[in-house]
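Retro notes (design track)

What went well: tokenization of the new backbones is finally stable.
What didn't: we kept losing track of which sequence belonged to which structure.
Fix going forward: every design gets posted as structure first, then sequence, in one message. First example under the new rule, 247 residues:
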């Protein structure tokens, strides 16, 4: 039932580990779609080399860069009734798809995501992970209180592995191709018309590469600033200047 969609751009370091993890999922997905935005490293070659070992793996070479655009291209090509948007540096538990299917079996739930635990080679970012967890609740409570209380809105981010029904994703217009950041928040505020947004009480592991490069204080200040400024109406184009791509 589940199509996994991975947007990539120069992810040669993170992608092999993620593909090894995906090989162990049970139940297995309908397909794994890598939507590449024009990588100049070995990302495409890595995907092609894995297609024999992982027959469900498909590669889409997108006409332009942009995570929202790439995920939309993957969704358009997907065959599954459920879409799961996975970052190339995020690892799922082996029963993740069963968790997703159980969650969406409840018709009052429109979409969901997991609790993201941020880890690196030498440490786990407990405080940053905890803040990201509670931010899923306090951000919509502060900035969209009606949707939070009456509709069950939650603010989830890409490293929490967003999932939803394909039919409802298409009905609400999918991701906005022109958004360079906060595309997940924008999508969820439109998906909430179909039901609650659920943060599932299970953990996925995400890379700490931004915190490792920026440092704890700077990274968390940037995360907090972007969330606050988005909540009060700053344009995503301006916010993107604070959030450089790191591989």
């Amino acid at each position: 039932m589940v199509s996994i969609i991975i947007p990539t751009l120069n992810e040669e370091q993170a992608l092999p580990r993620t593909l090894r993890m995906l090989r162990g999922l049970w139940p297995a997905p309908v397909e794994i779609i890598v939507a590449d935005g024009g990588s100049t490293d070995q990302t495409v070659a890595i995907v092609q080399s894995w297609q024999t070992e992982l027959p469900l793996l498909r590669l889409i070479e997108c006409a332009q860069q942009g995570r929202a655009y790439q995920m939309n291209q993957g969704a358009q090509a997907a065959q599954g009734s459920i879409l799961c948007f996975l970052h190339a540096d995020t690892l799922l538990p082996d029963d993740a798809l069963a968790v997703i299917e159980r969650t969406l079996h409840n018709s009052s739930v429109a979409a969901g995501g997991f609790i993201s635990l941020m880890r690196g080679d030498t440490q786990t970012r407990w405080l940053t992970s905890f803040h990201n967890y509670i931010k899923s609740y306090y951000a919509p409570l502060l900035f969209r209180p009606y949707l939070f209380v009456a509709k069950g809105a939650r603010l989830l981010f890409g490293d929490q592995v967003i999932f939803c029904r394909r039919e409802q994703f298409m009905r609400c217009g999918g991701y906005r191709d022109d958004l360079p950041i906060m595309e997940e928040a924008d999508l969820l505020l439109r998906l909430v018309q179909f039901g609650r947004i659920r943060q599932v009480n299970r953990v996925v592991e995400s890379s700490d590469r931004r915190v490792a490069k920026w440092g704890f204080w700077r990274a968390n200040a940037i995360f907090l600033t972007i969330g606050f400024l988005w909540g009060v109406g700053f344009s995503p184009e301006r916010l993107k200047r604070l959030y450089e791509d790191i591989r």
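Added context from the reviewer: The beta strands are 2-8, 31-36, 57-61, 82-85, 90-91, 109-119, 162-165, 196-207.
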